[in-house]
Design a protein that fits this description.
Elements: H1 3-6, H2 13-33, H3 40-47, H4 51-55, H5 61-87, H6 92-109, H7 111-120, H8 129-148, H9 154-177, H10 185-200
Length: about 210
């Protein structure tokens, strides 16, 4: 349940603008102070609104986090959908690399909320962005493997896909949130793409159509 289900829904333009203002302030505080340092008072102060105004839309900081998560998730998934569509016309390795690069960029754009969801927020306080991303990646990866490695039996294909999703997501998170000193982002994405293709399709053929 999102914050809008428990507090006043933004039916008017002014209300929507107020919510956007509050959420922008929440994202700034979250990036500067992390989950532990996020509070409704700090957010209201940053947004230059009263705490009472904030409480008209969000009951507590977890509702702020949940709405930020929902918006971030929708944005990441939209980027991912576009990347997956573009990857269809590319050779196997190029398509995989393109999707990984887009995912890294999206995670970096939402660095504060992504870090809070993964590292800091109490378990069970809200959903996580990664399962939604993994579900979409997994669906397309099944098609990818079926086209590029048709000789794999279903059990072997599912095993490879399961491991590949862990590699892809964890690698993209590390690249986005914990950049390695002295190693370029492009190099790390290249290495991840090579691992993905090797694991999914030892001998890639043709294009994903």
């Amino acid at each position: 349940m999102t914050a809008h289900n428990t507090r006043k829904a933004p039916r008017q333009r002014r209300s929507r603008e107020m919510i956007d203002r509050i959420l922008a302030a929440a994202a700034q505080v979250l990036e500067e102070r992390g989950y532990a340092g996020l509070s409704t008072n700090r957010v209201a102060d940053r947004a230059e609104v009263s705490v009472g105004s904030l409480y008209r839309y969000f009951a507590d900081k977890n509702e702020l986090i949940e709405e930020l998560r929902a918006r971030s998730s929708a944005d990441v998934l939209a980027d991912l959908t576009g990347a997956l569509t573009a990857a269809v016309a590319m050779p196997a390795r190029d398509g995989v690399r393109h999707v990984l690069a887009v995912l890294v960029t999206a995670l970096k754009r939402h660095r504060a909320i992504t870090a809070a969801m993964i590292d800091e927020a109490p378990l069970g306080a809200h959903g996580n962005i990664l399962p939604e991303v993994e579900r979409q990646l997994t669906q397309v990866t099944r098609i990818f493997v079926a086209v590029h490695a048709p000789a794999l039996d279903q059990a072997e294909a599912e095993a490879r896909i399961h491991l590949a999703m862990g590699v892809a997501l964890n690698a993209c998170l590390r690249i986005a949130l914990q950049p390695a000193p002295g190693i370029t982002e492009d190099r790390l994405i290249d290495l991840t793409a090579d691992l993905m293709v090797l694991g999914l399709v030892p001998n890639p053929i043709g294009r994903l159509k």
